[in-house]
Amino acid sequence: MTALVRVEEAIGQLLSWTLLLVVLLQVADRFLFAGGLQLAWTEEIARVLLVWYVFWGATLVQAENSHIRMDLLERALPERARTILLMVVDVAAAGLVLVLGVSAATYAMHEADFRLPATGLRRSVFVLAAVVTFALMLVHIAVGLVRKLRSGRAAAPGPA
Question: Could you tell me if 26 and 40 are in contact, meaning their C-beta atoms sit under 8 angstroms apart?
Answer without folding.
Answer: no
